[in-house]
Amino acid sequence: MTMLEVRDLEVAFGPIAPLSGVSFSLSKGETLGIVGESGSGKSLAAMSVLGLLPLSGGRITAGSIIFDGQELAGLPEPAYRKLRGGRIGLITQNPMTSLDPLQKIGPQVDAVAVLHLGMTSAQARARTVDILGTLRIPEPALICNRYPHQMSGGMKQRIVIAMALAADPDLLVADEPTTALDVTVQAQIIRLLDDLVKERDLALVLITHDMSVVAQTCDKVVVMYAGRVVERGTVTAIFDAPQHPYTQALIGCIPGAAGADEHLTSIPGTVPTVLNYPKGCPFHTRCAHMQPICTTDVPAFVSHNDSAAACHFAGDMK
Amino acid sequence: MTALLEVRNLSKQFTSAGGPFRKARAMHAVNDVSFDLPKGRVIGVVGESGCGKSTLARLILRLIEPSAGTLRFDGQDLRAKSPGEMRRLRARMQMVFQDPYSAIDPRYTIARAVLEPFKVQGQKPTQLPAEEVAALLSMVGLSPGLASSYPHQLSGGQKQRVGIARALALRPSLLVLDEPTASLDVSVQAQIISLLQQLRDELGLTFLFISHDLRLVRYFCDEILVMYLGRVVEALPDTDAAARHPYTATLRESTFAVDPKQRRVITPLEGEVPSPFDLPPGCAFADRCRHARAICRTDTPALVAHDGHAVACHNPL
Fold this sequence. Notes:
A: eight-stranded mixed sheet; 24% strand; B: 317 residues; Rossmann fold; 9 helices
Protein backbone atom coordinates (compact mmCIF):
# COMPACT_ATOMS: atom_id res chain seq x y z
CA MET A 1 0.00 0.00 0.00
CA THR A 2 1.45 3.36 -1.04
CA MET A 3 2.04 5.53 2.01
CA LEU A 4 3.71 8.51 0.41
CA GLU A 5 3.73 9.70 -3.16
CA VAL A 6 5.57 12.83 -4.23
CA ARG A 7 4.91 13.93 -7.82
CA ASP A 8 6.74 16.62 -9.81
CA LEU A 9 7.43 18.65 -6.69
CA GLU A 10 8.78 22.14 -7.24
CA VAL A 11 9.87 24.37 -4.38
CA ALA A 12 10.69 28.07 -4.58
CA PHE A 13 12.20 30.63 -2.27
CA GLY A 14 11.20 33.89 -3.92
CA PRO A 15 12.53 33.85 -7.48
CA ILE A 16 14.89 30.92 -6.79
CA ALA A 17 13.73 27.34 -7.36
CA PRO A 18 16.11 25.00 -5.53
CA LEU A 19 13.94 21.93 -6.18
CA SER A 20 12.09 20.91 -9.32
CA GLY A 21 10.59 17.80 -10.85
CA VAL A 22 11.09 15.66 -7.74
CA SER A 23 9.04 12.44 -7.73
CA PHE A 24 9.20 9.33 -5.60
CA SER A 25 6.87 6.92 -3.83
CA LEU A 26 7.06 4.64 -0.86
CA SER A 27 4.91 1.86 0.64
CA LYS A 28 4.45 0.52 4.17
CA GLY A 29 7.35 -1.61 5.34
CA GLU A 30 9.69 -0.02 2.80
CA THR A 31 12.80 2.08 3.19
CA LEU A 32 13.49 4.71 0.56
CA GLY A 33 16.95 6.25 0.46
CA ILE A 34 17.35 9.80 -0.81
CA VAL A 35 21.03 10.19 -1.56
CA GLY A 36 23.13 13.08 -2.78
CA GLU A 37 25.96 15.40 -1.81
CA SER A 38 25.50 18.59 0.17
CA GLY A 39 23.37 21.09 -1.72
CA SER A 40 21.57 18.44 -3.76
CA GLY A 41 18.21 19.31 -2.20
CA LYS A 42 17.67 16.08 -0.29
CA SER A 43 16.91 17.73 3.06
CA LEU A 44 14.69 20.27 1.32
CA ALA A 45 12.64 17.41 -0.13
CA ALA A 46 12.17 16.08 3.40
CA MET A 47 11.22 19.51 4.74
CA SER A 48 8.59 19.80 2.00
CA VAL A 49 7.00 16.51 3.05
CA LEU A 50 6.94 17.70 6.66
CA GLY A 51 5.41 21.06 5.72
CA LEU A 52 8.32 22.96 7.24
CA LEU A 53 9.07 25.13 4.21
CA PRO A 54 7.06 28.20 5.32
CA LEU A 55 9.36 28.43 8.38
CA SER A 56 12.27 29.36 6.15
CA GLY A 57 10.28 31.32 3.58
CA GLY A 58 9.87 28.60 0.96
CA ARG A 59 6.73 27.33 -0.72
CA ILE A 60 5.58 24.54 -2.98
CA THR A 61 4.94 26.03 -6.42
CA ALA A 62 4.00 22.87 -8.31
CA GLY A 63 3.38 19.18 -7.86
CA SER A 64 1.77 17.19 -5.09
CA ILE A 65 2.61 15.26 -1.94
CA ILE A 66 0.07 12.55 -1.20
CA PHE A 67 0.32 10.92 2.22
CA ASP A 68 -2.02 7.98 2.77
CA GLY A 69 -4.50 9.38 0.23
CA GLN A 70 -4.40 12.94 1.59
CA GLU A 71 -2.93 15.88 -0.36
CA LEU A 72 -0.33 17.67 1.78
CA ALA A 73 0.71 20.42 -0.62
CA GLY A 74 -1.14 23.53 0.51
CA LEU A 75 -2.38 21.92 3.73
CA PRO A 76 -2.98 24.65 6.34
CA GLU A 77 -0.59 24.79 9.28
CA PRO A 78 -3.05 23.66 12.03
CA ALA A 79 -3.75 20.46 10.09
CA TYR A 80 -0.04 19.94 9.50
CA ARG A 81 0.64 20.32 13.21
CA LYS A 82 -1.59 17.34 13.89
CA LEU A 83 0.26 15.20 11.36
CA ARG A 84 3.80 16.21 12.24
CA GLY A 85 5.03 14.30 15.27
CA GLY A 86 1.79 12.31 15.02
CA ARG A 87 1.44 10.19 11.89
CA ILE A 88 4.70 11.53 10.44
CA GLY A 89 7.77 11.29 12.66
CA LEU A 90 11.07 13.11 12.12
CA ILE A 91 14.54 12.02 13.15
CA THR A 92 17.03 14.83 12.76
CA GLN A 93 20.72 14.75 12.03
CA ASN A 94 22.15 16.25 15.16
CA PRO A 95 20.79 14.79 18.41
CA MET A 96 22.82 17.38 20.32
CA THR A 97 20.60 20.21 19.06
CA SER A 98 17.22 18.50 18.72
CA LEU A 99 16.73 17.95 22.44
CA ASP A 100 15.95 20.72 24.92
CA PRO A 101 19.03 20.99 27.16
CA LEU A 102 17.01 22.43 30.06
CA GLN A 103 14.37 19.71 30.22
CA LYS A 104 14.70 16.13 31.47
CA ILE A 105 14.39 13.32 28.93
CA GLY A 106 11.10 11.96 30.33
CA PRO A 107 8.92 15.07 29.90
CA GLN A 108 10.36 15.71 26.42
CA VAL A 109 9.25 12.30 25.17
CA ASP A 110 5.97 12.33 27.18
CA ALA A 111 4.87 15.56 25.49
CA VAL A 112 4.42 13.75 22.16
CA ALA A 113 1.83 11.28 23.47
CA VAL A 114 0.07 13.97 25.53
CA LEU A 115 -0.20 16.22 22.48
CA HIS A 116 -1.03 13.71 19.77
CA LEU A 117 -2.74 10.83 21.57
CA GLY A 118 -4.50 12.84 24.29
CA MET A 119 -2.94 10.80 27.09
CA THR A 120 -2.60 11.90 30.70
CA SER A 121 0.96 12.51 31.82
CA ALA A 122 0.99 9.26 33.82
CA GLN A 123 -0.14 7.24 30.79
CA ALA A 124 2.37 9.04 28.62
CA ARG A 125 5.22 8.26 31.04
CA ALA A 126 4.34 4.56 31.07
CA ARG A 127 4.40 4.65 27.30
CA THR A 128 7.73 6.50 27.23
CA VAL A 129 9.35 3.91 29.50
CA ASP A 130 7.98 1.20 27.27
CA ILE A 131 9.32 2.77 24.06
CA LEU A 132 12.76 3.49 25.56
CA GLY A 133 12.87 -0.19 26.54
CA THR A 134 12.12 -1.38 23.01
CA LEU A 135 14.93 0.89 21.76
CA ARG A 136 17.32 -1.09 23.99
CA ILE A 137 17.99 1.80 26.33
CA PRO A 138 19.11 0.36 29.66
CA GLU A 139 17.09 1.33 32.75
CA PRO A 140 14.50 3.46 30.91
CA ALA A 141 12.75 4.65 34.08
CA LEU A 142 16.01 6.10 35.38
CA ILE A 143 16.91 7.68 32.03
CA CYS A 144 13.65 9.68 32.16
CA ASN A 145 15.14 11.71 35.02
CA ARG A 146 18.36 12.54 33.21
CA TYR A 147 19.23 15.64 31.23
CA PRO A 148 20.48 15.38 27.63
CA HIS A 149 24.02 16.47 28.56
CA GLN A 150 24.35 13.43 30.82
CA MET A 151 24.01 11.08 27.84
CA SER A 152 26.26 9.98 25.01
CA GLY A 153 25.61 10.83 21.35
CA GLY A 154 24.22 7.40 20.52
CA MET A 155 21.85 7.48 23.51
CA LYS A 156 20.63 10.95 22.56
CA GLN A 157 19.92 9.75 19.03
CA ARG A 158 17.84 6.91 20.54
CA ILE A 159 15.84 9.46 22.55
CA VAL A 160 15.18 11.43 19.34
CA ILE A 161 13.99 8.18 17.73
CA ALA A 162 11.78 7.50 20.75
CA MET A 163 10.16 10.94 20.32
CA ALA A 164 9.54 10.22 16.64
CA LEU A 165 7.89 6.90 17.55
CA ALA A 166 5.89 8.06 20.56
CA ALA A 167 2.68 8.77 18.64
CA ASP A 168 2.81 5.60 16.55
CA PRO A 169 3.60 7.16 13.17
CA ASP A 170 3.07 5.50 9.80
CA LEU A 171 5.83 7.43 8.10
CA LEU A 172 9.27 8.21 9.50
CA VAL A 173 11.60 10.74 7.93
CA ALA A 174 15.22 10.36 9.05
CA ASP A 175 17.56 13.13 7.91
CA GLU A 176 21.16 11.87 8.13
CA PRO A 177 20.43 10.02 11.39
CA THR A 178 23.93 8.59 11.79
CA THR A 179 26.19 11.26 10.30
CA ALA A 180 27.23 12.68 13.67
CA LEU A 181 27.96 9.25 15.18
CA ASP A 182 30.97 6.93 15.35
CA VAL A 183 30.93 3.81 13.16
CA THR A 184 30.14 1.29 15.89
CA VAL A 185 27.27 3.50 17.12
CA GLN A 186 26.12 4.07 13.54
CA ALA A 187 25.82 0.30 13.16
CA GLN A 188 23.63 0.15 16.31
CA ILE A 189 21.29 2.90 15.06
CA ILE A 190 21.00 1.47 11.54
CA ARG A 191 20.17 -1.95 12.98
CA LEU A 192 17.54 -0.32 15.22
CA LEU A 193 15.87 1.55 12.32
CA ASP A 194 15.88 -1.63 10.24
CA ASP A 195 14.15 -3.57 13.02
CA LEU A 196 11.57 -0.80 13.57
CA VAL A 197 10.58 -0.74 9.88
CA LYS A 198 10.02 -4.51 9.96
CA GLU A 199 8.32 -4.79 13.36
CA ARG A 200 6.01 -1.79 12.98
CA ASP A 201 5.50 -1.96 9.21
CA LEU A 202 6.70 1.65 8.93
CA ALA A 203 7.50 3.57 5.80
CA LEU A 204 10.96 5.11 6.24
CA VAL A 205 12.52 7.91 4.19
CA LEU A 206 16.24 7.80 4.89
CA ILE A 207 18.19 10.85 3.77
CA THR A 208 21.91 10.27 3.58
CA HIS A 209 25.08 11.11 1.69
CA ASP A 210 26.53 7.68 2.45
CA MET A 211 26.10 5.10 -0.33
CA SER A 212 27.12 2.27 2.00
CA VAL A 213 24.26 3.05 4.39
CA VAL A 214 21.90 2.98 1.38
CA ALA A 215 23.30 -0.35 0.22
CA GLN A 216 22.86 -1.80 3.70
CA THR A 217 19.31 -0.62 4.48
CA CYS A 218 17.20 0.66 1.58
CA ASP A 219 14.73 -1.04 -0.75
CA LYS A 220 14.49 1.87 -3.17
CA VAL A 221 16.84 4.71 -3.97
CA VAL A 222 16.43 8.24 -5.30
CA VAL A 223 19.66 9.95 -6.39
CA MET A 224 19.49 13.74 -6.30
CA TYR A 225 21.76 16.32 -7.86
CA ALA A 226 21.32 20.11 -7.96
CA GLY A 227 17.69 19.99 -6.88
CA ARG A 228 16.60 17.29 -9.33
CA VAL A 229 16.20 13.54 -9.22
CA VAL A 230 18.74 12.13 -11.67
CA GLU A 231 18.10 8.44 -11.09
CA ARG A 232 15.65 6.27 -9.15
CA GLY A 233 15.06 2.56 -8.83
CA THR A 234 15.38 -0.50 -6.66
CA VAL A 235 18.55 -0.71 -4.60
CA THR A 236 19.84 -3.72 -6.54
CA ALA A 237 19.26 -2.06 -9.91
CA ILE A 238 20.97 1.16 -8.80
CA PHE A 239 24.06 -0.57 -7.46
CA ASP A 240 24.28 -3.34 -10.10
CA ALA A 241 23.82 -1.22 -13.17
CA PRO A 242 23.74 2.50 -12.43
CA GLN A 243 22.65 4.31 -15.61
CA HIS A 244 23.33 7.95 -14.78
CA PRO A 245 26.98 9.08 -14.93
CA TYR A 246 26.52 10.87 -11.59
CA THR A 247 25.29 7.70 -9.85
CA GLN A 248 28.19 5.75 -11.38
CA ALA A 249 30.68 8.33 -10.12
CA LEU A 250 29.08 8.54 -6.68
CA ILE A 251 29.59 4.79 -6.22
CA GLY A 252 33.07 4.93 -7.77
CA CYS A 253 34.11 7.67 -5.30
CA ILE A 254 33.93 5.33 -2.35
CA PRO A 255 37.23 3.61 -1.57
CA GLY A 256 37.00 -0.12 -2.05
CA ALA A 257 33.55 -0.03 -3.69
CA ALA A 258 34.86 -1.17 -7.04
CA GLY A 259 37.33 -3.67 -5.57
CA ALA A 260 40.27 -3.19 -3.24
CA ASP A 261 42.86 -1.89 -5.69
CA GLU A 262 40.65 -0.04 -8.15
CA HIS A 263 41.37 3.65 -8.51
CA LEU A 264 38.88 6.12 -7.12
CA THR A 265 36.64 7.87 -9.58
CA SER A 266 36.74 11.53 -8.83
CA ILE A 267 34.26 14.01 -10.23
CA PRO A 268 35.97 17.22 -11.30
CA GLY A 269 34.64 20.50 -9.93
CA THR A 270 32.07 20.93 -7.18
CA VAL A 271 28.32 20.70 -6.68
CA PRO A 272 26.73 23.87 -8.13
CA THR A 273 24.94 26.15 -5.69
CA VAL A 274 21.30 27.04 -6.15
CA LEU A 275 22.30 30.40 -7.66
CA ASN A 276 24.18 28.79 -10.54
CA TYR A 277 22.26 25.62 -11.38
CA PRO A 278 23.32 24.73 -14.93
CA LYS A 279 20.83 24.79 -17.80
CA GLY A 280 19.88 21.51 -19.45
CA CYS A 281 21.12 18.47 -17.57
CA PRO A 282 22.22 19.70 -14.12
CA PHE A 283 25.26 17.42 -14.18
CA HIS A 284 26.65 18.42 -17.60
CA THR A 285 29.29 20.79 -16.19
CA ARG A 286 31.04 17.88 -14.44
CA CYS A 287 30.09 14.99 -16.72
CA ALA A 288 32.75 13.14 -18.75
CA HIS A 289 30.20 12.17 -21.41
CA MET A 290 28.78 15.65 -22.01
CA GLN A 291 27.37 16.36 -25.50
CA PRO A 292 25.88 19.62 -26.90
CA ILE A 293 22.30 18.50 -26.20
CA CYS A 294 23.09 18.17 -22.47
CA THR A 295 23.71 21.91 -22.19
CA THR A 296 20.31 22.86 -23.57
CA ASP A 297 17.68 20.16 -22.89
CA VAL A 298 16.66 18.73 -19.54
CA PRO A 299 16.79 14.96 -20.11
CA ALA A 300 13.67 12.85 -19.62
CA PHE A 301 13.71 9.63 -17.59
CA VAL A 302 14.75 6.51 -19.51
CA SER A 303 13.71 3.23 -17.91
CA HIS A 304 16.09 0.32 -17.64
CA ASN A 305 14.94 -2.83 -15.83
CA ASP A 306 14.04 -1.68 -12.30
CA SER A 307 15.43 1.82 -12.52
CA ALA A 308 15.09 5.04 -14.50
CA ALA A 309 17.73 7.68 -15.18
CA ALA A 310 17.39 11.25 -16.40
CA CYS A 311 20.21 11.20 -18.94
CA HIS A 312 20.19 11.72 -22.71
CA PHE A 313 22.57 8.82 -23.06
CA ALA A 314 21.34 6.47 -20.34
CA GLY A 315 21.93 2.90 -21.41
CA ASP A 316 24.59 3.88 -23.99
CA MET A 317 27.34 4.18 -21.40
CA LYS A 318 29.36 1.78 -19.39
CA MET B 1 65.15 0.81 5.79
CA THR B 2 65.56 3.47 8.43
CA ALA B 3 62.61 5.11 10.06
CA LEU B 4 61.99 8.77 9.28
CA LEU B 5 59.94 9.02 12.45
CA GLU B 6 60.47 6.92 15.56
CA VAL B 7 57.89 7.12 18.32
CA ARG B 8 58.64 5.36 21.61
CA ASN B 9 56.34 5.08 24.64
CA LEU B 10 54.72 8.41 23.83
CA SER B 11 52.14 9.51 26.40
CA LYS B 12 50.09 12.59 27.05
CA GLN B 13 48.16 13.12 30.21
CA PHE B 14 45.69 15.97 30.53
CA THR B 15 44.42 17.06 33.91
CA SER B 16 41.20 18.90 34.45
CA ALA B 17 41.44 21.41 37.26
CA GLY B 18 39.26 20.78 40.24
CA GLY B 19 36.78 23.32 41.49
CA PRO B 20 34.40 23.83 44.37
CA PHE B 21 32.10 21.10 43.06
CA ARG B 22 34.49 18.55 41.64
CA LYS B 23 37.80 16.89 42.12
CA ALA B 24 40.74 17.35 39.78
CA ARG B 25 40.86 14.46 37.33
CA ALA B 26 43.47 13.09 34.98
CA MET B 27 43.04 11.39 31.63
CA HIS B 28 45.49 9.64 29.39
CA ALA B 29 44.72 10.97 25.93
CA VAL B 30 47.67 9.06 24.48
CA ASN B 31 49.08 6.15 26.43
CA ASP B 32 52.40 4.43 25.72
CA VAL B 33 52.28 4.62 21.91
CA SER B 34 55.28 3.30 19.94
CA PHE B 35 55.76 2.87 16.20
CA ASP B 36 58.21 3.45 13.36
CA LEU B 37 57.27 5.37 10.23
CA PRO B 38 59.75 4.43 7.47
CA LYS B 39 60.55 6.94 4.74
CA GLY B 40 58.05 6.87 1.88
CA ARG B 41 55.44 4.84 3.76
CA VAL B 42 51.89 5.81 4.64
CA ILE B 43 50.69 4.79 8.09
CA GLY B 44 47.03 5.21 8.88
CA VAL B 45 45.77 5.79 12.43
CA VAL B 46 42.12 4.82 12.90
CA GLY B 47 39.79 4.95 15.84
CA GLU B 48 36.54 6.47 17.02
CA SER B 49 36.18 9.95 18.48
CA GLY B 50 38.10 10.36 21.71
CA CYS B 51 40.63 7.62 21.01
CA GLY B 52 43.53 10.09 20.98
CA LYS B 53 44.38 10.04 17.29
CA SER B 54 44.36 13.82 16.83
CA THR B 55 46.31 14.31 20.06
CA LEU B 56 48.89 11.85 18.70
CA ALA B 57 49.22 13.95 15.53
CA ARG B 58 49.82 17.12 17.52
CA LEU B 59 52.29 15.43 19.88
CA ILE B 60 54.42 14.29 16.98
CA LEU B 61 54.90 17.87 15.77
CA ARG B 62 55.24 18.99 19.39
CA LEU B 63 52.32 21.36 18.91
CA ILE B 64 51.45 20.08 22.36
CA GLU B 65 54.10 18.88 24.76
CA PRO B 66 54.28 15.10 25.45
CA SER B 67 54.15 13.95 29.09
CA ALA B 68 56.56 11.08 28.46
CA GLY B 69 58.26 9.12 25.73
CA THR B 70 60.72 9.88 22.94
CA LEU B 71 60.29 11.22 19.42
CA ARG B 72 63.03 10.91 16.83
CA PHE B 73 62.71 12.54 13.43
CA ASP B 74 65.42 11.68 10.92
CA GLY B 75 67.67 10.58 13.79
CA GLN B 76 67.21 13.75 15.84
CA ASP B 77 65.67 13.73 19.29
CA LEU B 78 62.74 16.13 18.97
CA ARG B 79 62.08 16.47 22.67
CA ALA B 80 65.61 17.80 23.25
CA LYS B 81 65.09 20.70 20.82
CA SER B 82 64.51 24.28 21.88
CA PRO B 83 61.38 26.01 20.56
CA GLY B 84 63.49 27.83 17.94
CA GLU B 85 65.18 24.64 16.76
CA MET B 86 61.81 22.93 16.71
CA ARG B 87 60.36 25.68 14.53
CA ARG B 88 63.18 25.27 12.01
CA LEU B 89 62.69 21.51 12.03
CA ARG B 90 58.99 21.86 11.35
CA ALA B 91 59.93 23.08 7.88
CA ARG B 92 60.47 19.37 7.24
CA MET B 93 57.38 18.10 9.06
CA GLN B 94 54.06 19.74 8.31
CA MET B 95 50.43 19.21 9.14
CA VAL B 96 47.17 19.39 7.18
CA PHE B 97 44.17 20.07 9.38
CA GLN B 98 40.68 18.62 9.32
CA ASP B 99 38.66 21.77 8.91
CA PRO B 100 39.89 23.90 6.01
CA TYR B 101 37.35 26.57 6.99
CA SER B 102 39.09 27.38 10.25
CA ALA B 103 42.66 26.48 9.26
CA ILE B 104 43.07 29.51 7.00
CA ASP B 105 42.83 33.10 8.23
CA PRO B 106 39.71 34.58 6.58
CA ARG B 107 41.47 37.97 6.19
CA TYR B 108 44.45 36.55 4.28
CA THR B 109 44.50 36.25 0.53
CA ILE B 110 45.31 32.75 -0.75
CA ALA B 111 48.79 33.96 -1.76
CA ARG B 112 49.48 35.27 1.73
CA ALA B 113 48.16 32.06 3.34
CA VAL B 114 50.39 29.91 1.16
CA LEU B 115 53.46 32.07 1.85
CA GLU B 116 52.88 32.20 5.61
CA PRO B 117 55.22 29.27 6.33
CA PHE B 118 58.15 31.20 4.78
CA LYS B 119 57.42 34.12 7.08
CA VAL B 120 57.38 31.82 10.10
CA GLN B 121 60.79 30.55 9.00
CA GLY B 122 62.11 34.13 8.85
CA GLN B 123 62.11 34.63 5.09
CA LYS B 124 60.55 37.71 3.56
CA PRO B 125 58.05 36.98 0.76
CA THR B 126 59.95 39.53 -1.36
CA GLN B 127 63.03 37.28 -1.28
CA LEU B 128 61.05 34.46 -2.88
CA PRO B 129 60.83 33.89 -6.61
CA ALA B 130 57.76 35.65 -7.98
CA GLU B 131 56.33 32.45 -9.39
CA GLU B 132 56.44 30.59 -6.04
CA VAL B 133 52.71 31.03 -5.28
CA ALA B 134 51.70 30.02 -8.80
CA ALA B 135 53.93 26.93 -8.60
CA LEU B 136 52.45 25.88 -5.26
CA LEU B 137 48.87 26.40 -6.41
CA SER B 138 49.43 24.47 -9.63
CA MET B 139 51.02 21.67 -7.64
CA VAL B 140 47.72 21.10 -5.83
CA GLY B 141 45.59 21.54 -8.94
CA LEU B 142 44.40 25.09 -8.30
CA SER B 143 44.39 27.85 -10.87
CA PRO B 144 47.16 30.41 -10.09
CA GLY B 145 44.50 33.04 -10.75
CA LEU B 146 43.05 32.26 -7.29
CA ALA B 147 46.12 33.77 -5.58
CA SER B 148 44.39 37.09 -4.91
CA SER B 149 41.10 35.50 -3.76
CA TYR B 150 39.98 35.20 -0.15
CA PRO B 151 39.06 31.90 1.54
CA HIS B 152 35.31 32.64 1.56
CA GLN B 153 35.36 32.72 -2.24
CA LEU B 154 36.59 29.12 -2.38
CA SER B 155 34.70 25.85 -1.99
CA GLY B 156 35.59 23.40 0.78
CA GLY B 157 37.64 21.23 -1.56
CA GLN B 158 39.57 24.23 -2.91
CA LYS B 159 40.28 25.40 0.64
CA GLN B 160 41.64 22.00 1.57
CA ARG B 161 43.91 22.21 -1.50
CA VAL B 162 45.17 25.54 -0.17
CA GLY B 163 45.82 23.82 3.16
CA ILE B 164 47.88 21.18 1.37
CA ALA B 165 49.76 23.79 -0.71
CA ARG B 166 50.66 25.65 2.48
CA ALA B 167 51.86 22.44 4.13
CA LEU B 168 54.03 21.69 1.08
CA ALA B 169 55.45 25.22 0.76
CA LEU B 170 58.67 24.46 2.65
CA ARG B 171 59.15 21.11 0.86
CA PRO B 172 58.71 18.90 3.94
CA SER B 173 59.46 15.19 3.98
CA LEU B 174 56.76 14.23 6.51
CA LEU B 175 53.13 15.27 6.27
CA VAL B 176 50.75 14.60 9.17
CA LEU B 177 47.21 14.57 7.78
CA ASP B 178 44.52 14.93 10.44
CA GLU B 179 41.23 13.80 8.82
CA PRO B 180 41.90 15.93 5.74
CA THR B 181 38.66 14.88 4.01
CA ALA B 182 36.25 14.48 6.94
CA SER B 183 34.37 17.70 6.19
CA LEU B 184 34.17 17.19 2.42
CA ASP B 185 31.63 15.57 0.10
CA VAL B 186 32.56 12.14 -1.23
CA SER B 187 33.24 13.32 -4.78
CA VAL B 188 35.59 15.98 -3.43
CA GLN B 189 37.15 13.53 -0.98
CA ALA B 190 38.08 11.34 -3.94
CA GLN B 191 39.77 14.34 -5.63
CA ILE B 192 41.82 15.14 -2.51
CA ILE B 193 42.85 11.52 -1.97
CA SER B 194 43.95 11.20 -5.60
CA LEU B 195 45.91 14.45 -5.25
CA LEU B 196 47.67 13.17 -2.12
CA GLN B 197 48.60 9.92 -3.86
CA GLN B 198 50.02 11.83 -6.81
CA LEU B 199 52.02 14.18 -4.54
CA ARG B 200 53.37 11.25 -2.57
CA ASP B 201 54.73 9.66 -5.75
CA GLU B 202 56.09 12.90 -7.23
CA LEU B 203 57.69 14.31 -4.09
CA GLY B 204 58.54 11.09 -2.24
CA LEU B 205 56.55 12.16 0.81
CA THR B 206 55.93 10.18 3.98
CA PHE B 207 52.43 10.41 5.47
CA LEU B 208 50.85 9.84 8.83
CA PHE B 209 47.17 9.71 7.96
CA ILE B 210 44.63 10.12 10.78
CA SER B 211 41.07 9.04 10.00
CA HIS B 212 37.92 7.50 11.45
CA ASP B 213 37.10 5.92 8.08
CA LEU B 214 38.41 2.39 7.89
CA ARG B 215 37.50 2.12 4.23
CA LEU B 216 39.55 5.18 3.34
CA VAL B 217 42.54 4.08 5.42
CA ARG B 218 42.46 0.65 3.82
CA TYR B 219 42.52 2.25 0.39
CA PHE B 220 45.15 4.89 1.04
CA CYS B 221 47.62 3.48 3.60
CA ASP B 222 50.35 0.84 3.71
CA GLU B 223 50.06 0.04 7.42
CA ILE B 224 47.32 0.67 9.98
CA LEU B 225 47.41 1.49 13.68
CA VAL B 226 44.11 0.97 15.48
CA MET B 227 43.64 3.11 18.59
CA TYR B 228 41.17 2.72 21.44
CA LEU B 229 41.11 5.06 24.43
CA GLY B 230 44.63 6.35 23.95
CA ARG B 231 46.35 3.04 23.25
CA VAL B 232 47.34 1.30 20.06
CA VAL B 233 45.42 -1.98 20.29
CA GLU B 234 46.58 -3.39 16.97
CA ALA B 235 49.23 -2.60 14.35
CA LEU B 236 48.39 -4.18 11.00
CA PRO B 237 51.48 -4.60 8.79
CA ASP B 238 49.35 -4.44 5.64
CA THR B 239 45.82 -3.33 5.00
CA ASP B 240 44.46 -6.78 4.17
CA ALA B 241 45.85 -8.52 7.27
CA ALA B 242 43.16 -10.36 9.22
CA ALA B 243 42.10 -8.53 12.38
CA ARG B 244 43.36 -10.15 15.58
CA HIS B 245 41.99 -7.65 18.09
CA PRO B 246 38.22 -7.92 18.70
CA TYR B 247 37.91 -4.13 18.43
CA THR B 248 39.47 -4.06 14.96
CA ALA B 249 37.14 -6.87 13.92
CA THR B 250 34.16 -4.87 15.20
CA LEU B 251 35.26 -1.75 13.35
CA ARG B 252 35.46 -3.75 10.15
CA GLU B 253 32.04 -5.33 10.72
CA SER B 254 30.51 -1.90 11.37
CA THR B 255 31.71 -0.66 7.98
CA PHE B 256 29.01 -1.58 5.48
CA ALA B 257 29.75 -2.92 2.01
CA VAL B 258 28.82 -0.64 -0.88
CA ASP B 259 26.82 -3.45 -2.43
CA PRO B 260 23.26 -4.45 -1.46
CA LYS B 261 24.10 -8.08 -2.30
CA GLN B 262 26.66 -8.13 0.50
CA ARG B 263 24.17 -6.86 3.07
CA ARG B 264 24.59 -8.56 6.41
CA VAL B 265 22.79 -8.93 9.66
CA ILE B 266 24.47 -6.38 11.90
CA THR B 267 25.18 -7.57 15.39
CA PRO B 268 26.28 -4.26 16.82
CA LEU B 269 28.77 -3.91 19.59
CA GLU B 270 26.94 -2.88 22.75
CA GLY B 271 27.69 0.36 24.53
CA GLU B 272 29.93 3.22 23.55
CA VAL B 273 33.48 4.33 24.16
CA PRO B 274 33.65 4.91 27.94
CA SER B 275 34.88 8.14 29.52
CA PRO B 276 38.67 8.40 29.35
CA PHE B 277 38.79 9.73 32.90
CA ASP B 278 39.71 7.28 35.66
CA LEU B 279 39.80 4.19 33.50
CA PRO B 280 39.39 0.87 35.32
CA PRO B 281 42.40 -1.48 35.37
CA GLY B 282 42.81 -4.07 32.65
CA CYS B 283 41.97 -3.84 28.97
CA ALA B 284 39.98 -0.66 28.19
CA PHE B 285 37.85 -2.61 25.71
CA ALA B 286 36.92 -5.42 28.14
CA ASP B 287 33.44 -4.07 28.97
CA ARG B 288 32.34 -4.16 25.34
CA CYS B 289 34.26 -7.25 24.27
CA ARG B 290 32.47 -10.51 23.49
CA HIS B 291 35.60 -12.50 24.27
CA ALA B 292 36.53 -10.87 27.59
CA ARG B 293 37.83 -13.16 30.35
CA ALA B 294 38.70 -12.49 34.00
CA ILE B 295 42.30 -11.51 33.21
CA CYS B 296 41.08 -8.80 30.80
CA ARG B 297 39.60 -6.86 33.73
CA THR B 298 42.72 -6.95 35.86
CA ASP B 299 45.81 -6.82 33.59
CA THR B 300 46.41 -4.37 30.76
CA PRO B 301 47.54 -6.42 27.75
CA ALA B 302 50.87 -5.40 26.21
CA LEU B 303 51.25 -4.78 22.50
CA VAL B 304 53.06 -7.91 21.34
CA ALA B 305 54.33 -8.30 17.79
CA HIS B 306 54.40 -11.54 15.88
CA ASP B 307 55.73 -11.43 12.29
CA GLY B 308 55.35 -7.66 12.28
CA HIS B 309 51.68 -7.83 13.29
CA ALA B 310 51.23 -6.47 16.81
CA VAL B 311 48.15 -6.88 18.96
CA ALA B 312 47.36 -5.91 22.55
CA CYS B 313 44.94 -8.61 23.62
CA HIS B 314 44.99 -11.51 26.11
CA ASN B 315 42.78 -13.54 23.85
CA PRO B 316 43.46 -12.54 20.22
CA LEU B 317 41.29 -13.87 17.42
